[in-house]
Design brief:
Chain lengths: ~300, ~300
Amino acid sequence: MIKDLISNLRKKDVKTISRLISNIENENKDYLDLLSGIHSYTGKAYRLGITGPPGSGKSSITNQLIEKFTKNKLSVAIIAIDPSSPFNGGSILGDRIRFSNISKNSDIFFRSMSTRGSQGGLSKSATLVADIFDASGYDVIIFETVGVGQVEIDVIEAADTVMVTLVPESGDDIQMMKSGLMEIADLYIINKSDRDGADRLYNSLNKILDLNMGHGWNPTITKTSAINGSGISELYDKIMNHKEFIERNNIKSDKMDERYLKTVKFFITEALNKDFWHSNKKLNERLQKELKLIYQKRLSPYKISKELLSQ
Amino acid sequence: MIKDLISNLRKKDVKTISRLISNIENENKDYLDLLSGIHSYTGKAYRLGITGPPGSGKSSITNQLIEKFTKNKLSVAIIAIDPSSPFNGGSILGDRIRFSNISKNSDIFFRSMSTRGSQGGLSKSATLVADIFDASGYDVIIFETVGVGQVEIDVIEAADTVMVTLVPESGDDIQMMKSGLMEIADLYIINKSDRDGADRLYNSLNKILDLNMGHGWNPTITKTSAINGSGISELYDKIMNHKEFIERNNIKSDKMDERYLKTVKFFITEALNKDFWHSNKKLNERLQKELKLIYQKRLSPYKISKELLSQ
């Protein structure tokens, strides 16, 4: 059964891929055995992350890059980390709408994932979904996120190459520097660069990067106007440069080790917690009993945790 | 020693408060006993969260509200969740600069915290720091975050009242709906409401809220222009309405229970992991051995986690 699934996966069967992803999202019991089965086929895809503030053109740039990749006979899977809808509990179709110009074609696969749910959960799931695409032979995996949050940064940081999109208005205030995105970028993109302020942003960003030049990769800045495709070829070349750079300097393999360790530790934490709460049904009863007391009369969270751990 | 600290804390001594917060941030060993000691003094402060996209005026609104609170003889502590600086590893002083108009006065305490660090870590630390302010007798605690991320949402959700700031431009596209902030708001603020599009945003937001009216609190919308103070009195009244509402309907006590449970579970997870990796030094050696193999030849992360757990 699992063997058949994996065999279909290796043929890039769209239905099988979708099914496996759903298994991960729903934390279906079998999915862990399945993931074990595909591990030896992973580690080949090139993982590209794109993030930046809302409205900075991440999707347009992604769309343009997809065209470039496919022209170069590279298949692309896109994982969009999609904060969930306010009121219906589901995922808004925004990204899918914007991606509707992409033909239904197994060489381009788009999947959005919601940021709701447990903290560690999403960055783990995104990594596992990427592993599925990786094992099924996709050449390039693009993670697209709206930046700022720690989970989004975790997802993006796991990519081989990280791109941060900015717009000329980003330079207007101190917020740009505070976005938390700046330290993780390999490639900066100033999109909508036909607008006022693009040169000013370019120069100030350049100055900051100059100050920090040193060992390793020096982040680059590309001006684009994704809506009409300008700057995309230049960006594509820079992506390929970075890809080569990290492969040549073992940076890619370090990133793979990090991902491996993080996933192992995630599974262990999950299992330890599950074992703990299932080991003794009285633990939960004890905790509920404490909750019944007036807040100020309860044992402190630290003391009750110690008491529970000692049982 | 701890007793003296707590006694000084209860006198709202600024130096003691700062020292205790540093202990939490540095995860000083003694801090857990200390926190146990203050638990019975917590649970009295009113916790207010404000979030929204960069540039939507969170700090200006916060500043204006601080004035209101202090005029009404309420002391205020502000915890700003501050993504760390790109290149120096530290915290940018942006928020502090903007807050420089606030006098050095123990009835107003400003503290910024960085979002870097472990995922669960920050929302736990922010809650613990709030507990310190709570125990030292601050009437109001304001959490200010740049929204979107899961960690920021976790911090804000733990507040008694959640405010989300928007600007007229927020209505321009689908991104507003995708911000992940919409479902957690008790009070919406349309700031910079003298700009074009404020009415349009008001109306479309109103329509969405109407659709979802039902049991419990119906989120309100306030138009403000924080820079000149307009709308702030109205906002203040709405905050007070919500405060009363959650106190009358036991929503506040439910939130306190949630915070309590989350903190207990955090401490337990931390202890379980620590025990596990310290229980047997060979575990780490085993994992390191696996890392030395070629990526594809390694046991899958799930399999190795199972092997380590069985030891």
